[in-house]
Amino acid sequence: MKEEIKMNNIITIEPVSRLEGKARITFERDNQGEISRAEFSVLEFRAFEKFLEGRMAREMPRITPRICGICPVSHHLVSAKATDMLARTVIPVRAALHRELMHMAQFIHSHTLHVYFLALPDFIDSFKAESNDFRLLLKTDPDMLKKVIRLRKFAQYVIEVTGGKAIHPMSAIPGGISKPMSEEQRSELIKEAKELVPITKEILYKVWDLLDAVPDKLKQYETLETHSMAMISKNNTIALYDGEVVIIDKNGKRKAGYRGASYQKYVEERTMEWSWTKFPYFRKDEGEESSILQVGPLARQKIYDSIPTAIAGEMLDKFREQFGRYTVENYATHYARVLEIMYSLERTVEILEDDNLMNNDYKIKNKITKASGVGLLEAPRGTLIHHFESNEDGRITNSNILVATTFNNPAINLALFKVAKAQMAGGKEIDNETLRYIESSVRIFDPCLTCSSHSFNNFTIKVINHRGETIEHVQERSKDLRAT
Amino acid sequence: MRIKVAYCILTSCTGCKISFLDMHEKILDVLEKIDIVYSQMIQDHREVPECDLIFVEGSISTDEDYKEALELRKKAKYLVAVGACACFGGIPAMRNFYSTDEILDSTYSQKKGRYTGPNELLPKVKSLSSVIDVDFEIPGCPPLPENFIEVIDNYPNFDNIKLPTKTLCVECDLKKEKLLSPIREFTSLKINDPYEVDDTDMCFLERGVLCMGIATRSGCGGRCVGMQVPCRGCFGPPPQEGSEDQGAGMISAVASILPTGRLIAKEDILGLVYRYSLSMITNLQIKRTNEGGNKDE
Ligand code: SF4
Ligand code: SF4
Ligand code: SF4
Q1: Which of A24, A45, B84, B161 would bridge with B141, disulfide CB 3.0–4.6 Å?
Q2: How far A262 CA sits from the closest chain B CA (Å)?
Q3: Burial class (CB in 10 A: 0-12, 13-18, 19+), B262
């Protein structure tokens, strides 16, 4: 087989732009000129799980943030949650609120970065311009850009106050937090948060309109019928910091739910005999259908019933009117992300106004000994799991890190394959427009490649649809092929 | 004439890049002075052109990183290493505890000995500065946003930038008593976990908690210690000649303060003292401490 592959049948795009991290896309055409293979390769690997072994378990929240500089708070907090379990503690309410506040701020920062700096340029200047970047906003809407900057600045400042540093915070410790905020800091933050609510509402609706105004042709990302996975609160409302993780099928039917180590029952990392890469996968029971999963804003939207805050709740109604709750249109992800920015800001105000943030204990001292701990969290890009085991000395003996981008990876590859097949049919060459289509079909997932340190490297996979049928069969790549 | 600037990323977490963006509104002023000609994360350019100034973030972990570093050096009039990873290897260099075979085999247990990857992992992670000549280094994980502004404002006379060079203890507001006395007794007879001591305004070492501040370059403003969390050394060793080995610096510094015997037995000492700078101690046989670690004093 391999010998038959002609070099000029291989098309590569590198680097893939406006993504967090480095990636290469490789397509292969068959002899009829049709796309027969699509691969999205992540080009870096940092072996975190290996070198975490032997480290002190209490240091996990300080080391794992370096997995990703865009959502370090997620790794910080999910590691802290896992080490809370290793220390056999339930953290005080005050500490939980403090952490959740940091988390909300990160949602604002990370989603804002994606929407305004990474994705939006695609919609402002259509797909035609030579180069699209955030400086376009300087020309088209400098006022909006200033407001966006102010919002992001606030968010990063909240992380600094609650976490110690905006990037790679350190205040979440096993058993709670290291230092609560002062009254002065609190009032300063409340003031700015409240001022930002109407401003944010305005700029988010502006984006909404911009998204609506994009010509239909450009909205047609690939439709993907997959399972969805996300966290949910006791009352089935949106939950980003704590709750049960639920898996539903494409029609919204609940397939599974887990809170701790039982994720292993449903989320399998398979190494397929025909693939060199492990990847996460939903498995129900013996014999029942498996499916690829999607996580992230759109998956969350399908899973929560409602959003309990006023403006974001209103946005959700609008969203569901426009798309329907179980939409298969991936384009809707942009909107789902937008309404999460609003929710996070409204929730920020709520937490800041909660007096539990200022009173009582904020940490419980307990030594870590032999134990197993699983932290679950909704990171901006989707469900995040850190699973640690520790020994008597409080050292890590085993670790497992499952990140959102890895969960989404099969779907990313599937979307990529479909878009390329459609756009490059009949031997059509890649031009600027096709390239934009292709990249934005990946970009919509907001993949964070630095994060995907787990199943990393080469995400070459067999793609299976929601019925468990093989849609695409990918072969191993030979070394010399990679050199092209 | 605006300075033509590229921002390039090797193996990294992109946190340094986010720190660059965290100039917030000041970025609008900075954009008056510079022309960003390449930045994969926020722009669509595919090739790094020849430019005046290249910021490079990340460590050298793969063959591609290595080639790219050499390329970038050729393209840049001035090249600045950004962050702990570029300056001294950073956290990813902790994989240097292991061989690449061990790493790949354990991650791809079902493909033992057969897994390679889209590019080749170098046997050891190296810092950018150890592979090419760099014109300036801004340390930290990540560096402060102001550091980028200083580099741009002073371009190309980087000598005018005066980054702090003493140890973090100088910037730390926690009270030092015994630490400063000329004849030091053990300041604490016990080594404590950071989170089992009470919050006070005393120096961590005096509370019996390992704090890397004493062997770490100042410049961060004492962020962690200000948050009641001990320093872990992300600004790397102080720049003076002879203090490149941050771990050795730490061990000799605490030898007179804490009962170090206990320390070796109970603490993951390598993962602490070399957390950010393991790649600086080349040719050193590292004894692994991850298995067991329960030896008696
Ligand atoms: S120095 Fe720190 S922030 Fe910068 S790339 Fe390395 S790990 Fe990320
Ligand atoms: S050792 Fe740590 S706590 Fe003590 S003075 Fe130095 S930086 Fe501060
Ligand atoms: S206190 Fe230490 S670990 Fe924390 S930011 Fe400063 S140098 Fe880095």
Answers
A1: B84
A2: 21
A3: middle
Q: Of A168, A278, A367, which has the smallest distance from its Cβ to B142's Cβ?
A: A168
Q: Cβ of A20 and B14 within 8 Å?
A: yes
Query: Does B9 contact chain A (CB < 8 Å)?
Result: yes
Centre of ligand 2 to C-alpha B143, Å, is 20
CA dist B198 and A334 (Å) reads 46
B98: nearest CB among A17, A51, A58: A51
Domain B3-160: which topology? Rossmann fold (3.40.50)
Give every CB contact of residue A445 below 8 A, 6+ residues apart in sequence. Answer: A296, A333, A381, A405, A408, A411, A412, A415
Domain of residue A62, CATH code: 1.10.645.10
Ligand 1 and B139: CB distance under 6 A: no
Q: Relative to the alpha carbon of B88, which ligand is closest? A: 1
Domain boundary among A369, A389, A410: A410
Each residue's pLDDT tens digit, A163-181: 999 999 999 999 999 999 9
Is the same domain home to A35 and A119? Answer: no
Q: A13 to chain B nearest CA, in Å?
A: 9
* Residue A420 neighbours by CB under 8 Å, 6+ apart: A27, A35, A38, A438
Domain with CATH 3.40.50.700 in chain B: 3-160
Strands (DSSP E) contained in A201-346 are 227-232, 244-248, 254-258, 267-271, 278-283, 290-291, 293-294
Residue-level pLDDT at A90: 94
ipTM above 0.85, yes or no: yes
**A484, part of any domain:** no
Question: According to the model, what pLDDT value does residue B93 have?
Answer: 92
Task: Give the domain extent around A448.
Answer: 3-43+416-477
A21–B266 C-beta distance less than 8 A:
no
Please indicate, yes or no, whether residues A142 and A185 belong to a single structural domain of this protein. Answer: yes
Percent of chain A with pLDDT over 70: 79
pLDDT in tens, A251-304: 899 988 998 888 888 877 654 332 334 567 777 655 555 678 889 999 999 999
Higher pLDDT, residue A128 or A341: A341
Strands (E), A329-455: 371-379, 382-390, 396-402
CA of B15 to the centre of ligand 1 (A): 5
- CB distance A22–B275 less than 8 Å? no
Of A67, A149, A394, Cβ closest to residue B25? A149
